[in-house]
Amino acid sequence: MRTALVTGGAQGLGAIIVSSLVQAGYRVAIADINPDVAQHLVKEHGEEKVAVFGLDVSNENSVEQVLDQVEERFGLPWLLVNNAAVMKAQPVLEIDMPTFERIISVNLCGTFLCSQRFARRLVAAKQSGRIVNIGSLAGQNGGSATGAHYAASKGGIHTLTKVFARDLAPLGITVNAIAPGPLDLPSVAATIGADRLPALKAALPTGKLGRPITVARMVVEMAREDADGLTGSTIDINSGLYLR
Ligand SMILES: NC(=O)c1ccc[n+]([C@@H]2O[C@H](COP(=O)([O-])OP(=O)(O)OC[C@H]3O[C@@H](n4cnc5c(N)ncnc54)[C@H](O)[C@@H]3O)[C@@H](O)[C@H]2O)c1
User: Fold this and answer.
1) Most buried in the list 45, 66, 97, 194, measured by CB within 10 Å?
2) Does 192 score more than 90 pLDDT?
3) Mutate to test the pocket of ligand 1, among 13, 132, 204 (most ligand atoms within 8 A of CB)
4) How many domains does the chain have?
5) What is the CATH number of the domain that holds 29?
6) Is the minimum distance from the CB of 241 to ligand 1 under 6 angstroms?
7) Per residue in 14-47, pLDDT tens?
């Protein structure tokens, strides 16, 4: 049985990715800054299949420590899903530097750090593997509501996806991204404000928020062993909001 490590898997999209991976036959390590919130997933799937670890993706020691703990519990993962992020809507002229730096640090540096440290371990063990990054439409076209810090961090994640894919391809490690538009999740109203939700929905060509399960199924597909030719790509799941 293969192991997947999902950052930010305690709630929202991450939790749905966790459940889809369990259903696809994985043992899943959830690593989140709020590990207590993930306990419902342990209850739902059982301790044999799901374990929870406290992690701050922006902290080097924390990342190394969790990778050690996951290896000890389940063995070296096959798959890393970089899903943890802070979402924030804020007018560009009002962003202060500590906020800008914090969001870049969690979203972009966190993705870099987790990917690099995971890949180093795969290489040391002479193992192939998979990395899936959760990007965003905001990283492609600036987005419709979220702030410059968030959009820039996600654009950076799409670029990291390509560079890691290029360097790791000869080592049997594929690296792909998914760029969701607004999803049917509580975080959307929490980020942009519930009052702006109807206008956001009305602006979607499909008329509907994206389904988180579509993203989760794409993660499972990208992680397949026989998907070894799929690397460096960013798959759009954005309700037709941005066609490229
Ligand atoms: N919701 C959407 O419409 C949407 C659209 C595009 C992309 N995304 C992306 O999907 C992913 C999940 O978003 P969501 O809507 O489920 O958000 P969410 O806020 O519900 O979940 C984010 C998770 O990340 C965790 N987290 C935050 N900071 C962390 C840190 N420093 N270290 C470890 N864990 C940390 C949180 O505790 C939480 O469990 C994010 O990468 C987000 O940018 C979401």
Assistant:
1) 66
2) no
3) 13
4) 1
5) 3.40.50.720
6) no
7) 999 999 999 999 999 999 999 999 999 999 999 9
